[in-house]
Every structure is written in structure tokens, then in C-alpha cells.
Amino acid sequence: MSDMSGTVFWVVLGVALFLGSFGAVGGICLALYIVSFIVGGASIIYYYGKSRSETTLMNKPSRVPKTKVGPGKIIDDVTHIQRHYRTDKRMTGASAIDEVLQEILDFTYRDYIHIWYKKISDDGKFRYDMRLTLQKVVIAFSERCKEVDWVPYCTTNLVDDFASHLRLFRRAQEKVRKEAKKDESKVPPDLTSVFFDLEVEMENNLCRDTICTDPFKEREYLQELSDVLLYLLLPPEDFHNKPFKHIVRECLVNGVFLPVINLMSDPDYINQLIIWMCLDTPINNDTFVLAIKLSDSLDELQAVREKLDMDIARWRSKDTGGEDDTFVKQQLSSLVFVKSQCELRIARLQAGLGYDDGTANGGLDVQKLLTPGQKLYSLPFDVILNNNVALSYFIEFMTGLGFQNYLFFYLNVEGFRVSAEQQINAAQLQKLADSSSPGPDLEMISAAAYSIYEQYLSEKASPRVRVEESSLKRTLQAIQKENITEEIFDPIQAQVYHLLQENKFYGAFKKSSSYIKLLAELDLLRDVPSDDESSIPDDETMSSPSSSNHASTEDLSNNCESWSDLIVTAKISQTGIVKEQGRAYAVYAITVTKTHRDGLEDVVDVYRRYSDFHDLHMTIKEKYEALGTLSLPSKKAFNNMNKDFLEKRRIALDNYLQTLQDPGVQANYPGLQELLYPFLQPGPWEKGKSEMARKMDTFVN
């Protein structure tokens, strides 16, 4: 108690002395100042220490180990886990194709998926699912392709559709041209509207004008097409995923279909594509001459003529005799011939006899090619079937009539016969060489025969080749019993041949404008007056293929001039060496003289190689076995460019040619004249090669 009272005494004394020394007001203020200073200092020290501690704990690693349970463990597991997805890389069943497809898928994924997905997430599940979906699409596409019979589609349906489009376009051009000529004061109708009007007539009230002219409708059509493709190719679970399906559909429409359509519609791209394709197949001399004959540009032809004049002048400066005299003369002769073709084409274009954008038949105004009363050559039916150029015009004509399937059947059977004969003979020779080997394998031949029957002769065929039912039954029974020979289709082919040779087809073709265009391309249009032949058909007869279907036999039989109306003599005048594309070969110049009934003569030079003579000999030997004994100079592997050797061969070949022209030989072997005369025509000769090669060339063209 005494301690307590003592403490109070000293406190009271201190306060009294403090107030006595500083006064009441000053003492209170000083006391408050001291208290505030102490409180403020303590606060500053506390907050400064707290902030430093937090910074140190966050930046420096803790010496206390992290716990291995709880969220930390989960985060570490998710961060460091690596899943390996295994994929089956088999898609088409062919390892060579699968490797290429896998590489394409890798590039597609890298350029179109990974480039944007890596910015969103590094999860591999999505990438695995996308890759798996792409593989399933490729597998489905491969399976669907195996179900399609590509041969008839590519050789018949696709060709027919393309040819129909071209015919429709030409008819539209012709109609626009006629309307413009009727009244030049009026604006001619729009080509596009005329085209689609004709399409309505040809397609039985089916028209695609809205899809082709309206971008919005075109996009809608492509979207519907994409939906069908996705239904066929996508897995069911992906197709029923509407967001995914719509995204893929828009990518197809805007990223694939529309750009491809716009690209294929660009004339510059088409021209560049043609140039690129020509780089792999160098253009030979015959192709160049044909391009000149078909050109419709005066500027181009005049430029070519100027270049030819320069080359002719350069080669004439070298025509000074010597060892290369024959070669120089050959080059000069070739250049002069090309120049004459160029000048002839220029003269025809300047006279309005060439091509223009508005004429029918691909631009060729056939009436301008002919003169009143002009007579035409008569090409034999066999020549039309075996000459590629003539066959292309006949196919176009038959397509216009809607009977092209008969011609395609005939050509397919020709190819089948040659192929089957070769396979059967090869198998039989192998069996003779090895008696233990099995008989000929007819599985492929049987499949080919059945395919031809299904495509052209069966009730499911569209359109169907109509022949005798008895022949159809016998052929089908032979196919089903696998009694296959190369002659299995011969009875039906003979019926089709006679049907094509009738006036309804072959005769009507010779009365059509297509035949006149063919003669013009073969350089067979000339005025050959004859007392027993009628003049050219009038405009009404040539207006369309269908209008000539009912031409009478009398009108057709006296229409043209045949080979028998000419006296043709030929002689090999000289020989030379030609260098083309780094290769040198010998060429023999044949001087051909054609004497007409009125005494007029046409003299032309035809250039042929030894291989042409050899091929002609093989063709004649194949048709006339007795003529196979004719003497033809043999081949020589070395020193075959020697001047003396070439002269000896020229004499031997000329003797061979004179033997073939002998009237007695031609009388004993009917058809030899028709076989020889195409060989003596200027320009490229349709080489015989082998029977298989001839038929395949004909079929492809």
C-alpha cells in the first residue's frame, strides 16, 4: 500500500512540475506530440516488416518441401502427362498408296489444323480425333470408288455429257448468228439465254440457268452437294454432329468447290494448263502443220509466214552444194511446204472461208467451202472407222442422232477381239513350251466380255444396242459357260456393222455438214466435175444431222467421187536426212501425180520414213498373205545414214512401190488400192503398227 501511494505521489509531483514548467496548454500539447510520435513509429515499423517478409517468401524458394498430396499432386500429373495415341495407317489396302495418302494427311493437318489449334490448346486428344476422322473419310472414299464402274463412265457417260455440252453451245452460237443476220439493226439475243433455252428443249424441261448465273443459288447447290458427300463419307457420329457438319460443309464450299470452279473458268489458267501439258509431249512437224490449217488468227499466220521467209532465206544461203546439199534441200522443201499451207490458210481467211465465232460446226461455215455443183470424194466406210480424224467426226454425228452406243460397241468389240486373241495365243504358246502349265486363264477375258454385254446388250443397258434376240441369247450363254473366244461377239458385231453402213447412218453422214468439214480437214475438197455425180447438198439438207436421216439411196449413191475416178502414180524421187529433236532419220520423198477425168493433174510431194514402208508392208501382209513375199529392203542397225546405202534403199523401195501400183496386182487383190492411196496422201499417215495398236488408237480418239 505504501509503495502504491509513493508511486502516485511521484506521478502527481511530475505532472505538477511539468505543468508548472510548460504551462497547462503547452504541457498538454507536448504530451500529445510524444504519444503520436511513438504510435506512428511503431506503425511504420510493423507495415514495413510485413511487406518485406511477403516479398522474401514469394521470391525465394522455400526450404520446406511441398506436400505430395492434394491440388499440387493433381497439377503436376496433368502438366507432365504424355499420352501416346496409336493409329492404324492402312486406308486403301495398297501400301504404296497409303504412304502417299499419309503424307498428304500430315501436310493437310499441319497447314490447316495445327496452325490455329496450337494457339488454343496443346491437348492431343482433339488432334488424334481429327486425324482419325480424316482417315475414315479417305477409307470411305476408297470403298465408294471401288463400287463405281469407271470404264463406261469415263469412256461413254463423261464423253457424252461433254460432247452434248459442246453441241449445245455450238447450236446457241449458230442461233445467235442467224438472229443477228436477220435484222442487223436489232441487238442480237444474249448467248447465255439462248444456250439455256436450248438446254430446256434438249433436257426435257430441265434447266440449270439459276445455278449457273446466280452466285447465291450456286452456293446453295454446292452446299446441298456437300451435304450428300458428307453423308456418304463421314462417320455417322460425326455426320449427326450438326456444328461440326456445318463447319466442314462451309469449308468444302468456300475453300474447295468455289475456288476450283473459278480457277477452271479462268481462260488464262486453261491456256497455261495446255502449255504445261504440251511441254511433256513435244509438238512434231505434222501437228504444227495441222495447227496452221486450223488457225483462225491472221496475225499469227502472218507472223509465222515472216519467220518462214527468214528461215528460207537462211537455208538458201547454205544451198551451195557439197556434202550437206541433200539435207539443205530437204529443209528448204519442208519450209516451202509449210509456207504454202500458211499462205493458203491466210487466203481462205481473207476470203471469209475460215473460222469465225458464230458459225456452226465448231465455227466452220461449210457453205463457204463449196461452190455450186462441186463434187465430193467418197470415203469408204472402212476408212472412216480406221482413220482417227474421220472417226471423230462420225462419232460426233452419231452422237447427234443419239445412236453413238452402236459405234462404241463396235469399237469395244474390236479392241476385245485383239486383246483376247493375244492373251489366248500367249497362254497356248506357254502351254506348248511347258506341258505341265495349266490351260489359258480366261477369267480376265470372261470379265471383259461380260462387261461389254452388260454395258451395251443387256436389258439394263441404257441406251441398249438392238440386235437379234437369238444372237443375244447365244452370246450370253457362251459367256455364262465361260466358253470365251475372241470371236464371241462377231455375229452381233456384223449386224451392227451392216446397220452403221446403211443410209440411215453412213449415207446420212456423207450428206451432212460434218462430212464436208471432215473433207476440208483432210484436204480433200476440190472441184472435180463429173457427168454422173450430183452436186452438193443444199442448206436444208445440211442444216442438221437429223434432217438427213431419210435421204434416198439415189441421192447418196451419186454424191461423191471415189478413188476409182483417179489415176494415181507415185515414184520415190529423192531421199535425205532430217534432224528433229536431236534425232536424225532418213526421209524418202514420193512424188505423187493424180490425174482426174478431165485430164487435170495434181502433183504433190509426200514424205515417208522407212518405218512407214515397213508398217505398210506388214499391213498388206496381214490382209493379203500372198503379197508377203514381195521384196522389201531389210532393216540395218549401223551405217543406215550412209549416202550410198540410202540411194540403194530408195531404189529398192521404189521398186516395191511400183509393184503395188501395177494394175494387174491391184486387180488380183481387191481393196489394195484403197489401202495404198491413204499412204500416198500428204500429211501424217495413219500407221498400221499392230492390229491392237490400231484399234486402241481408234477407240481412244
From TrEMBL:
It comes from the Eukaryota. SUPFAM superfamilies: PX domain, Regulator of G-protein signaling, RGS. Residues 94-282 form the PXA domain. GO terms for molecular function: phosphatidylinositol binding. InterPro entries: Phox_assoc (IPR003114), PX_dom (IPR001683), PX_dom_sf (IPR036871), RGS (IPR016137), RGS_sf (IPR036305), RGS_subdomain_2 (IPR044926), SNX13_PX (IPR037437). One of its GO terms (cellular component) is early endosome. Residues 542-556 have a biased composition (Polar residues). Residues 566-687 form the PX domain. The keyword Transmembrane helix applies. Keywords: Membrane, Transmembrane, Transmembrane helix. Residues 380-505 form the RGS domain. PANTHER family: SORTING NEXIN (PTHR22775), SORTING NEXIN-13 (PTHR22775:SF3). Residues 530-541 have a biased composition (Acidic residues). This is Sorting nexin-13. The chain crosses the membrane at residues 7-24, 30-49. Pfam families: PX, PXA, RGS. Residues 529-556 are annotated as: Disordered.
